[in-house]
Amino acid sequence: MPELPEVETTLQGIKPWLLGQEIVAVNVFNASLRWPIPTEINDIVGLTIEHLHRRAKYILVKLSDQSHLLMHLGMSGVIRMVDSNEVYQKHDHFELVLGQGKALRLNDPRRFGCVLLTSVDPAQHTLLQKLGPEPLSNDFDGQWLKKSAKKRQIAVKTFIMSNQVVVGVGNIYAAESLFLAGIRPTNQATKISLNKYQQLAATIKQVLQKAIDLGGTTLKDFRNADGKPGYFKQELYVYGRAGQPCLVCGTVIKNQVIGQRASCYCPKCQK
Description:
By secondary structure, the chain is of the alpha+beta class. About 20% of the residues lie in helices and about 20% in strands.
């Protein structure tokens, strides 16, 4: 599943091609995504793209009438830039045709992604209004984690993967961040010290920024906007390494299911 670094990588890839461009056509080949693509999407033809940014795993496209497109990659989606006359691929569901002969296409085999249109401030949209802070922002730190963990008697890995606590910390990045902070993923969130949460907030920022810098994580069929795979997988310490020696201490990496997700950790490095 594309996570925050993959979405950020996609955003940075498409941004130079979209900013300031007029939308000359909209093509919907299959409206049946996670939520149906609204018929009003055709009203954006003739508008100009003024701004693009990311919130959690949503790509937000601000248009010249102040409306916004909300796009999500779902479980297996890819947004890519192509020449507008390029032959369509299987599972291409949505296309924005731009000036200068370019088009943005959403390809999503599982159809869990979405393309929505909103006229309200996207921060107030029902899909976004209850989200926690961005992990790379100043709003996210150890103090925030400690405050949010009060009375949370759940595993810390489950806790930091909650979008109400912090957005974009998926299974891979949670496992890697907890390893670097020396925190066992099964530890109860409410019992972790402020000092440890400060370390964890710092490692979450470190791991996510490194993944963004390296182009995301190569998982299954993920591709960047230019069709190239990400390169973060080769840097992983614990995720997917159950039964292998820890790269730091040599202890065998263990795996435990937490919140229905495989959770690899080093029993020596993580206490």
